[in-house]
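request received
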Amino acid sequence: MEGVVVGQDQQQQQQQQQQQAGRVMVEGLNPAVQQQLNLESVKTRAVSLFKAISRILEEFDAIARTNALPKWQDILGQFSMVNLELYNIVEDIKKVSKAFVVHPKNVNAENAAILPVMLSSKLLPEMEVEDNVKREQLLHSMQNLSVASQIEKLKVRIDMIGAACESAEKVIADTRKAYFGTRQGPTLLPTIDKAQAAKIQEQENLLRTAVNLGEGLRIPGDQRHITSGLPGHLVDVLAVADGPQSFADSSGTYLKNTPPFSSSNVNSQGALLQVSGALRAAASPSGTTSFDTTTASPLQHVNSPRSSANMMNTPSPQQQTHQQQQQQQQQQQQQQQLQQLQQRQKMMQLPQHQQQLLAQQQLRQASIPGLGQLHGQPQMQFSQPLGAQQFQGRQLASGALHHGMGQSQLNQGNQLNRHLNQFSSPMNTALFNSAQSTPTSQMISNMSAMMPSQTLLPRMQIGMSGGTRNLAAANLSDQMFNMGGNNPGMMSIQQQQQQQHGTFANMSQNTQNLQQGMMPLQNTPQQTHPSFQQQRPQGQQ
Amino acid sequence: MECVVQGIIETQHVEALEILLQGLCGVHKQSLRIHELCLKSVPNLGLVASEIRLLCDLEQPEPTWTVRHVGGPMRGAGAEQISVLVRPMLESKVNKNALRLFNGLGYKLDHEQLRVGFAFHFQRGAQITVTISSINKMLKLHATDEALPVTPGIQLVEVTAPASSENYTEVVASVSSFCEYLAPLLHLSKPGVSTGVVPTAAAAAASLMSDGGGTK
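response:
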C-alpha cells in the first residue's frame, strides 16, 4: 500500500516535474505528452488496484467477524489478480520512470525548490522510522561490538535460521511420506496374536457346526424328557401326555450327508431296486411273461410324480399290440439285463456317486436295443432309464463335477434341458440318452429309424459332440434345480460351444453328421469297445 | 432358492455392526427371537432321512410358526466360483399344529436352538436380510427360557436373499457387493467355510462407535 501511495506521490511529482520539465527541456514535451497519457492510465490502474486490495481486506474482516471459513480458492484468485495488476503497473512505471531521471543542467530559481527533494536519497519519514526500529531490534545486543563482529553474529543468526528452516521442511516431507505410505500400504494392519486367533477359530467352528449341522445341540436320549414347564409357544402344541420324545441315539442310522445327497440317494436306490427287481424278473428264462413284468413294474410308477410326465399314460394298449415284437427281443434284453445285474452288483461296492453314474450308463444301454427294435413303442423301455436317471440327475451333476468335469458339460446339459423341457417328450429324452451313450453302428441305424422330432435332434447332437455321457439324466426333469439353476449363468459358454461344434442339420438327412459328431465320443477312453453290448462303463470321468 | 453367506463377529463389535448396517440399509433393526426345531425323519419313513426345520418366532405377540426345508447347495464349477451359497429353500407359514403334525408323520426332534438377536430387511438389488444373532442351546428339552449361548463371545451373522433359478446370478451379485461393505468388520463366506475374525474389526468398530452413530 505504501508503495502505491509512493507511486502516486511520485506520479504527482512527476506530473509537476513534467510540467516543469516541459518548460525546462524542450524535448521532453512530446514524450511527456505521451507519458502523461500513460501516467493517467497508470494512475487509474493504481487506483483500481488499491480498491481491489481494500476489498480483499474488507472480506477478511467480514470472515474474521463471522468466524466463517474463508473460501480460499476465491481469495487466492483475487490475490493473484491483484498481484498481476501490481506487476503490470510497476513495469509500466519502470518504463516510464526512465523519463524521469533528472539531470538538471541548469539550476535556477524554479528548480531550486524542487531539486533537493528530487535528488535526495533519504527515505520518507515513516519509512525511515520503521527502518530505524528494525535496525534497533536487530543490533540491540551488538551495539557495543565492532562492526565486523556484528556482521559475524548476523551471519551466524542467518545460518541458524536457515538450518531450522531446512529441518522443518525435512520433517514435513517425512511425515507426508509416512502419511501416504500408511494409507496405501497394508503393512500397518493390526494383527491378532495366534493364541487368540486359535481360540476364536475354535469358537467359530463350534458355532458354525451348531448352526448348520446341529452339532453340540443334541440332547442325549435319556435327557429328553420334558421336565420343566414348556415355554408359552409350546404349551398347547405339545401335550405333556405325548410323553418324552425319545430319540434313539443311534445317529448312525441317519445319513448326515447333505439333503440332496440323501434325497437323491433315496430315489436312486429306489430306482436301482426297482430296476434290479425288474432285471431279476427278466433274467429268468421263462419267456414272454417275464418281459411283461419288467415293463409292468416301472409302469406302476408311471403316474407318480417322480417319473417324467404324462406321456406314460397310454402305453398299455400299445403294449398289448407289440407283444410279439417283445418276444423276439427278449433274449437279447435278458442278456443285457444279466450283464447289468452283474455290473450293478459291482457297483454296490463303488462309492455312491460312481454307482449312480454307472447305473445311469447301464440303464441307458438297456434302452438302446429297445430303441431300435421297438420302434413304435419306445416309451415302455424308456421308463426304466428315465426313472432312474431322473433321480440321479442331481447327484450325477455333483458327482460328475466331483470328478472335475468342466462347465462345458453342464452347459450342454442345460441347453438340452431347456430344449427338452420345451418338448418334454419321452421319445426325445430317450433319443438323447441313447445318443449320449456310446455310438455304434447299430444305434446309428436305429436312430435313423426314429423320427420323433426333427427339430430337437440337432440340438441333442450338439450336446453329444462335445460332452460325455453323464449329462443325460440331468436334463430330464425340471425339478433338478442344479441344471435349471445353472442355466442363466452358463448361457454364454453354451453359445461358445455351439459355435465350436457347429450346427447339425436334420438327422434324417445327416446320419453322417451324426457319425462325425460321434467321433469325439468314440475317442474318449470310455468308448473303446465298438460293440455296445459289451461295453463296460468306465470309471470316473 | 436362497443365496446365503455366514460370518462371525465378536460380541463386542455387534453394536458397531448394527450402526454400520443401519447406515447402509436405511432401516431400523427388528428384534429376533426364534426357536428353531430341527426335525429329522426316522429311518423307516424313507430310505434316507430328510430334515425339516420348524421356526417359531417368539418376538411376535402371538408366536408364529414357519416350516422350512433347506436343500443342498448348488454344485458345479460355476457354484465354486461364486462366493455365495445358493441352495433350494422352501418356506411356508404354518399354524402351531405343525410340530404335532410332523411328529405324527414320524419326524423326531433332532436338535433345537434359540436365536436371539436382530435383523435388517431391506432392498438393495435384491431383497436382502441380514441377521445377527447369538445361537443358544437348551440343556433341557424345549427350555427356551434357560438357553445358553453356544459361543458366548461370538455371534453369527447371516446374509440371505431369496432367489429363483432365473435371477440367482443377480441376487448373488447384489449379496456379494453388499458384503463388501461389511468387510472392515467381518468376513462372510459360504456356510461351512470358516473365515476367522477380521483384524481390522476392532479399529473399525471403534471408529464406528466414536462417530456417535455417524455413517462410516
